Recover the amino acids of this structure.
């Protein structure tokens, strides 16, 4: 249903460096790239994540209540992605761990303040 999610950035190079390393943890790579827009994914037919400098030229801002969730296969992968995000400069929004029956997740904000989580079913 979702083709890709786009997050705004004010520093495309910083975002590219962050997401290249973070998304490599789940096997994603750059699928499309322009001067102010990059898309990562595992294949062009699966959902992806992109960053962009806003088309209107105004600064990128964080959407209140907006979050991108990255799905993985097992809790150990959640732990690795969450840890990698913090190593890359993300801010903690909730340590990796169980969040109720059958759900394991870790929450963080990227260098632009966008909120993400990495989760799996348990």
């Amino acid at each position: 249903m979702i083709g890709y999610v786009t997050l705004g950035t004010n520093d495309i190079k910083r975002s590219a460096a962050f997401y290249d390393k973070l998304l490599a943890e789940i096997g994603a790579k750059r699928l499309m790239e322009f001067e102010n827009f990059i898309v990562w994914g595992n294949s062009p037919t699966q959902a992806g994540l992109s960053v962009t400098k806003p088309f209107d030229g105004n600064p990128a801002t964080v959407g209140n209540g907006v979050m991108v969730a990255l799905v993985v296969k097992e809790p150990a992968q959640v732990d690795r992605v969450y840890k990698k995000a913090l190593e890359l400069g993300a801010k903690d929004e909730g340590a990796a761990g169980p969040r109720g029956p059958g759900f394991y997740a870790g929450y963080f904000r990227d260098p632009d303040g966008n909120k993400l989580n990495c989760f799996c079913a348990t």
